[in-house]
Specification:
By secondary structure, the protein is of the alpha/beta class. It has 8 helices and 13 strands. One of its GO terms (cellular component) is cytoplasm.
């Protein structure tokens, strides 16, 4: 079966527009669904973070007001993979040529670290050059911005979806958001194709498979599984 690199944010806060710190990390549903469904499909996952720091789950993603009846299930799964979360692979030690897909779940954390991380940029550029499946979703596409330089953007002209500016204003960090991922990706040259707010929506453009929000977690993961199967 396939070997998948899961890049997870190591950040635990986001500096908001007013200068205050917003506790964050990875979004539980996104990491859990992707990790669980890819593992069940028989694939091997290497979970890596910048510096190999233990990733922090966004507490809001496990609140009953957010996760509802899924809270216990999500918490249980995170406990079951605690040994993996406790000692993730150091992202700088990763050789992208050894992977069939790169999966990037969100949470606001990627806006703090992955979006500006040179190692993430190097991995994504190499993966895209090789035609490796790249699957960021929700705020995960912020990581694509790491490849933006004065000479261009690796994913310019590519179709993708991401947590929309409207969703950020409705149920994210609102007008206090320091920068909007959708807006920045558009400025960089990506072609954003959004579905209705809070609905499952996946966009596939060659090796790039993206999902819009937490509700898209299962669909984007299924698309990755299907794409890997098609490659044999």
């Amino acid at each position: 079966m396939s070997h998948i690199l899961m890049i997870v944010t190591g950040a635990n806060s986001l500096t908001l527009a007013d200068g205050t710190e917003h506790p964050t990390g990875f979004w539980a549903e996104e990491l859990v669904v992707a990790h669980r469904d890819l593992t069940r499909a028989g694939h091997t996952i290497t979970l890596a973070t910048p510096g190999g720091v233990r990733p922090t789950v966004d507490a809001g993603s496990l609140a009953e007001s957010t996760a509802g009846e899924k809270t216990a299930e999500l918490t249980s799964y995170l406990v079951s993979i605690d040994d993996v979360l406790a000692v993730p692979t150091v992202l700088a030690d990763v050789h992208p040529g050894g992977f069939d897909a790169v999966v990037i779940p969100g949470g606001h954390g990627p806006m703090t670290d992955l979006a500006f991380d040179d190692v993430t940029a190097s991995i994504l550029k190499a993966a895209d050059d090789a035609g490796t499946i790249i699957a960021p979703f929700c705020h995960g596409p912020a990581a694509l911005l790491s490849t933006r330089t004065d000479s261009g953007f690796t994913f310019a002209g590519r179709r993708l979806t991401v947590f929309t500016d409207d969703e950020e204003r409705q149920g994210g960090t609102g007008e206090n958001t320091p920068w909007f991922v959708e807006d920045e990706l558009r400025k960089a040259g990506a072609i954003i194709q959004s579905g209705p707010a809070w609905s499952s929506h996946v966009v596939i453009d060659g090796n790039l498979i993206s999902g819009q929000n937490p509700q898209s977690s299962a669909a984007v993961t299924a698309a990755v599984v299907e794409a890997l199967a098609a490659r044999g």
